[in-house]
UniProtKB/TrEMBL annotation:
GO terms for molecular function: rRNA binding; structural constituent of ribosome. The keyword ATP-binding does not apply. SUPFAM superfamilies: L21p-like. It comes from Ramlibacter tataouinensis (strain ATCC BAA-407 / DSM 14655 / LMG 21543 / TTB310). This protein binds to 23S rRNA in the presence of protein L20. Coiled coil: none annotated. PROSITE patterns: RIBOSOMAL_L21. It comes from the Bacteria. This is Large ribosomal subunit protein bL21. Part of the 50S ribosomal subunit. Contacts protein L20. InterPro entries: bL21-like, bL21-like_sf, Ribosomal_bL21, Ribosomal_bL21_CS.
Length: 103
Protein backbone atom coordinates (compact mmCIF):
# COMPACT_ATOMS: atom_id res chain seq x y z
CA UNK A 1 0.00 0.00 0.00
CA UNK A 2 1.27 3.46 -0.85
CA UNK A 3 0.07 7.05 -0.60
CA UNK A 4 0.87 10.42 -2.14
CA UNK A 5 1.12 13.06 0.58
CA UNK A 6 1.65 16.79 0.54
CA UNK A 7 3.84 18.50 3.11
CA UNK A 8 6.00 21.60 2.96
CA UNK A 9 4.65 22.57 -0.46
CA UNK A 10 5.94 19.35 -2.06
CA UNK A 11 4.40 15.97 -2.87
CA UNK A 12 5.90 12.62 -1.88
CA UNK A 13 5.00 9.02 -2.76
CA UNK A 14 5.39 7.03 0.46
CA UNK A 15 4.95 3.43 1.53
CA UNK A 16 4.90 1.90 4.98
CA UNK A 17 8.39 1.46 6.46
CA UNK A 18 10.13 4.06 4.26
CA UNK A 19 12.30 6.93 5.47
CA UNK A 20 11.93 10.29 3.71
CA UNK A 21 13.37 13.78 4.17
CA UNK A 22 10.82 16.59 4.08
CA UNK A 23 10.84 20.31 4.82
CA UNK A 24 11.35 20.99 8.52
CA UNK A 25 8.41 20.20 10.81
CA UNK A 26 8.21 21.82 14.23
CA UNK A 27 8.03 18.72 16.43
CA UNK A 28 10.37 16.75 18.69
CA UNK A 29 12.42 13.71 17.71
CA UNK A 30 10.53 10.50 18.49
CA UNK A 31 7.14 12.18 18.29
CA UNK A 32 4.46 10.59 16.11
CA UNK A 33 2.66 12.91 13.71
CA UNK A 34 -0.40 12.39 11.53
CA UNK A 35 -0.36 13.74 7.97
CA UNK A 36 -3.92 14.30 6.78
CA UNK A 37 -3.13 15.93 3.42
CA UNK A 38 -3.31 12.72 1.38
CA UNK A 39 -3.77 13.22 -2.37
CA UNK A 40 -3.99 9.56 -3.43
CA UNK A 41 -3.98 6.08 -1.89
CA UNK A 42 -3.04 2.99 -3.87
CA UNK A 43 -3.20 -0.72 -3.07
CA UNK A 44 -2.11 -2.99 -5.90
CA UNK A 45 -4.24 -2.16 -8.93
CA UNK A 46 -6.67 -0.09 -6.83
CA UNK A 47 -6.17 3.68 -6.71
CA UNK A 48 -8.21 6.29 -4.85
CA UNK A 49 -7.54 9.81 -6.04
CA UNK A 50 -8.88 12.78 -4.08
CA UNK A 51 -10.35 16.01 -5.36
CA UNK A 52 -7.98 17.42 -4.10
CA UNK A 53 -7.70 15.29 -0.90
CA UNK A 54 -8.88 11.75 -0.13
CA UNK A 55 -11.48 12.09 2.64
CA UNK A 56 -10.65 10.17 5.81
CA UNK A 57 -7.18 9.12 4.64
CA UNK A 58 -4.24 9.63 7.00
CA UNK A 59 -0.57 8.68 7.16
CA UNK A 60 1.16 8.19 10.51
CA UNK A 61 4.87 8.98 10.69
CA UNK A 62 7.52 9.15 13.40
CA UNK A 63 10.15 11.87 13.45
CA UNK A 64 13.61 10.27 13.29
CA UNK A 65 15.92 13.30 13.09
CA UNK A 66 16.33 16.95 12.16
CA UNK A 67 19.25 18.21 10.11
CA UNK A 68 20.58 20.36 7.28
CA UNK A 69 21.12 19.42 3.65
CA UNK A 70 24.42 20.03 1.87
CA UNK A 71 25.30 23.62 1.07
CA UNK A 72 24.02 25.01 -2.21
CA UNK A 73 26.45 27.57 -3.60
CA UNK A 74 25.11 30.50 -5.59
CA UNK A 75 27.61 32.38 -7.77
CA UNK A 76 26.60 35.32 -9.95
CA UNK A 77 28.95 37.08 -12.31
CA UNK A 78 28.76 39.60 -15.10
CA UNK A 79 31.71 39.26 -17.39
CA UNK A 80 33.94 42.28 -17.98
CA UNK A 81 31.94 44.36 -15.45
CA UNK A 82 33.89 43.55 -12.28
CA UNK A 83 30.79 42.08 -10.62
CA UNK A 84 30.90 38.85 -8.65
CA UNK A 85 28.54 37.76 -5.92
CA UNK A 86 28.82 34.62 -3.81
CA UNK A 87 26.09 33.26 -1.59
CA UNK A 88 25.36 29.93 0.12
CA UNK A 89 22.32 28.25 1.62
CA UNK A 90 21.69 25.13 3.72
CA UNK A 91 18.06 24.00 3.83
CA UNK A 92 16.81 22.36 7.02
CA UNK A 93 14.97 19.05 6.87
CA UNK A 94 13.09 16.56 9.02
CA UNK A 95 13.55 12.83 8.48
CA UNK A 96 10.35 10.79 8.83
CA UNK A 97 9.78 7.05 9.28
CA UNK A 98 6.46 6.25 7.63
CA UNK A 99 4.17 4.02 9.67
CA UNK A 100 0.56 3.07 9.01
CA UNK A 101 -1.38 4.30 5.99
CA UNK A 102 -5.14 4.45 6.60
CA UNK A 103 -7.54 5.28 3.89
Amino acid sequence: MYAVIKTGGKQYRVASGEKIKVEQIAADVGQEIVIDQVLAVGNGSELKVGTPLVSGATVKATIVAHGKHDKVRIFKMRRRKHYQKRQGHRQQFTELQIGAIAG
